[in-house]
Amino acid sequence: MLNPVTAEFISQLQRLLPAAAFPELGDKYLTEPRGQYRGSAGLLVAPDSTAQVAQVITVAAAARISVVPYGGGTGLVGGQILPESTTGAPAPLILSLGRMRRIRACYPAENVLVAEAGVVLAEVQQSAADVDRLFPLSLASEGTAQIGGLLATNAGGINVLRYGMARDQVLGVEAVMADGRIFNGLQRLRKDNTGYDLRHLLIGSEGTLGIITAASLKLAPRPQSEGTALLTVDSPSAALKLLGRAKGLLGESISAFELISGQGLRFLTETHPQMRQPWSSPPNWSVLLHLGVSHGTGAEQAIETLFDQASDIILDGVIAQSAQQAQDLWSLRETIPLANRAIGAICSSDISLPLSEIAGFIEKMPHALARFGDIRINCFGHLGDGNLHYNLFPAEGAPASNYRDMRADLQAEVHRLTHELGGSVSAEHGVGRLKVADIARFGDPVKLQLMRQIKDTLDPQGIMNPGAVLPLRAA
To answer: What domains lie within the chain, and their CATH numbers?
Structure first.
């Protein structure tokens, strides 16, 4: 049984930590970007060192008070807040990592940078650029998202095709465990076969096993030439064919291969009319391609070669002629989620599928949803790694409230077909609290049992982010 935050508990922490560790509990700590949950909190604490985090967790464990870690607050599955409606879980201690903002070390010759959990992704990218290196993790919220949260959710982003997920960018982590012990795992080694890899256990665990406080991050060489193009195709199947052709021709130089639907571009026209688009009438399907090459042929020339050799697939296209033009093309892709939010989605799905199943999924899904009436679909995402954002919207002119009672059934239908085709209902945003029931429904029973055993072993009192990833234990 978890206990509520008490005056005695607060006084104990105040004796251990400086006044700066107790900022005002603003509304941002109780909300999340999609507005699906309203959080509760008994206390907000913001340590500025791993030692202080350990002190907080030690005291919380002794008092059996739940701890919800908070990074940049950009998560989309409710993992950063404990909803007021959650039964059996008193208002928690919210642990903000936002004051842990130090770049501890940088080793350009080793392509390694050591950053604390509260460092914002854009700051890590800039620190890498300052030593002529690249930190390739990149996503729309990089100006706010923090390293600790990105690793806790194993974030993806646009460069997974070439560089992998967040876990693939990490050599080691430092973490505070559920009893307050500090796991010192900040090694900078590429090879270390000394037993279980606890780094990968903690990455993606969403704060349910421990609190990541710092990480040794991999850097990469900066491309000497980069190129961006927006290419139109007649279908997702053609886009996948183009991906195969591009891989054969350009190899590992492809860092991003994004699928964009005409519906997404029409939403942009409606909500962001000031944004210039390359075509007066948006194509039904297009691909945003990004290359980065280190030597030899320039990226722009490589794209032109692809354009020539895939002329049977590409219907039309725009190749960026400057950094500004490239940024303008990427702005179209990065603004689509904002346009979605302005239109008002009924439900949004972050799914992944085997590449060979994507075209079939996109073709079958509208038929599976037809019984729900007129629904607009905006399907877009990271085609190169099989990650789709499949979002459903009201018919034009109809309020989202008309579909409120259908939401769960619509989401279930999308997830059902995803599962049938061998996909995952959680691709890059994590499980949080939003998808706990989905994981229970579609997950392998043995995997779920093992996850519960790991949770019970490392967090026997259940104080670490209760209700995230796994359901709360019955009281």
So the answer is: 7-98 (3.30.43.10), 103-221 (3.30.465.10), 225-420 (3.30.70.2190)
